[in-house]
Specification:
Number of domains: 2
CATH architecture of the largest domain: 3-Layer(bba) Sandwich
CATH superfamily of the largest domain: FAD/NAD(P)-binding domain
Strand order of the largest sheet: 6-2-1-7-17-16
Distance between the termini: 27 Å
Helix content: 25-40%
Structural class: alpha+beta
Largest sheet: 6 strands, mixed
Low-confidence stretches: none
Radius of gyration: 22 Å
């Protein structure tokens, strides 16, 4: 066999896994169907690690935020995804957002240029019988999904994921909008479109009344993922829901009034040139014509030009706590590991993190070694534990990394100090784990 391990899928998880394995000196075959005559309902290019929903890796605060802590751990483990994100970040306050085109090009060049990686543009429809990592993501091809279902006897779970619109910067009315980050944290990184009470009420009603995408019969029982809820679905939950969610005006001083707006729509920079801006939290299943009509009622967006309108697609994931062991191997076919969103993690960085640790497990196994899982007090360890056994098999749902996945703190802390206590403990456990790995690495 001309390679040591096969990776199926060139998204964030597959790209990270390929990089980790190749950097460890292993020969990798990376199969990606995009560019080989196939595509998905959400992707627009054949680049590796294409970001289709948002350009944000969320908070980069490693002191008080679980996802920021996850960033830090991945950087310490030589993550290609984090390295590329850091190289192509755009202003986003305390968040890590990237120029998504430059980011994907960076990852693609790194993967294609690595001497230990052979890229094959092909669709894989069956489960291989040799060492493999399946990182096909939530849009796994139908034939491979059928093969997984046949092997496991469990079928696939599914949920809907939605995409937010992107607006051309020069079409935003800055006589109405202003630049600021919440509480001035991180600089003036967001465009803020203010709504008063009357405007907000009319907007919520328009979302409720707007014409939505209709689902096929087989999709109607599929739930939404709470972390990527369509804006109109949130509006249906109550008139105040959006005002305490993505349209929260708290902490944003409107320089024209000196007060917080009743509600606000925020736009976040989506490319390095600053010409494209993403509507934060505005994932939607509204029909395209309705999106244009309704979103142009937002003050400052009356003449908005859309580079991309929102959309919705069906995502699939396996029941990982039931089907995978603690090293992400398929119980019934242990030559196969799963990584990324197909395992039931949610989020770009979480997907890449699972790809990273799957590759490290595979590297150790191929060398005849055993890699201990990261402690559950760490961000990667907590996420891995959720996927492989920490969650209830009967009610397993996709999950972003969060402090609730970690063991409780051994002592009580003031609310203001609790998050810092979690991250301090996590860094201590991670450092000890990493030092232990260095101690057993072959010379």
């Amino acid at each position: 066999m001309p390679f040591d391990i096969h990776i199926i899928g060139g998204g964030l998880a597959g790209s990270e896994a390929a990089w980790q394995l190749a950097e460890a000196g292993l020969k990798v075959r990376l199969s990606e169907m995009r560019g080989g005559g196939d595509t998905t309902p959400a992707h627009e290019t054949d680049r590796f690690a294409e970001m289709v929903c948002s350009n944000s890796f969320r908070s980069d605060d490693a002191e008080n935020n679980a996802v920021g802590l996850l960033h830090q751990e991945m950087r310490a483990l030589g993550s290609l995804i984090m390295r590329s994100a850091d190289q192509h970040r755009v202003p986003a306050g305390s968040a890590l957002a990237v120029d998504r085109d430059a980011f994907a090009l960076e990852v693609t060049r790194a993967i294609a240029g690595h001497t230990n990686i052979t890229v094959i543009r092909e669709r894989v429809d069956a489960l291989p019988g040799y060492p493999t990592i399946i990182a096909t993501g939530p849009l796994t091809g139908s034939k491979l999904a059928e093969a997984i279902a046949a092997e496991t006897g469990q079928g696939a779970l599914a949920f809907f994921d939605a995409i937010a619109p992107i607006i051309h910067r020069d079409s935003v009315d800055m006589d109405i909008c202003w630049m600021a980050a919440r509480w001035d944290k991180g600089g003036k990184d967001y465009i803020n479109c203010p709504l008063d009470k009357e405007q907000y009420g009319a907007f919520v009603q328009a979302l409720r009344d707007g014409e939505k995408t209709e689902f096929k019969d087989w999709e109607k029982d599929t739930p939404y993922f709470e972390g990527c809820m369509p804006i109109e679905v949130m509006a249906e939950r109550g008139v105040e829901t959006l005002r305490f969610g993505p349209m929260k005006g708290v902490g944003l001083d409107n320089p024209r009034t000196g007060r917080w707006p009743y509600a606000v729509v925020q736009l976040r920079q989506d490319n390095a040139l600053g010409t494209l801006w993403n509507m934060v939290g505005f994932q939607t299943k509204l029909k395209h014509g309705e999106q244009v009509r309704i979103f142009r009622t937002i003050p400052g967006l009356e003449n908005a030009e859309f580079a991309r309108l929102g959309g919705i697609h069906r995502n699939s994931f396996i029941n990982s706590p039931r089907l995978l062991d603690e090293q992400l191997r398929l119980n019934s076919k242990p030559n196969i590991r799963f990584a990324g969103q197909i395992t039931g993690c949610e989020g770009y960085v979480e997907s890449a993190a699972v790809g990273l640790i799957a590759a490290r497990f595979a590297t150790a196994e191929l060398r005849g070694e055993t890699l201990p899982p990261l402690p559950t007090e760490t961000a990667i360890g907590a996420l891995l534990n959720h996927i492989t056994g920490g969650a209830d098999e009967e009610s397993f749902q996709p999950m972003n990394v969060n402090f609730g996945l970690m063991p409780p703190l051994p002592e009580r802390f003031r609310k203001a100090d609790r998050k810092k206590a979690y991250t301090d403990r996590a860094r201590e456990r991670f450092a000890a784990w990493q030092a232990g790995q260095r101690a057993v690495e072959p010379v």
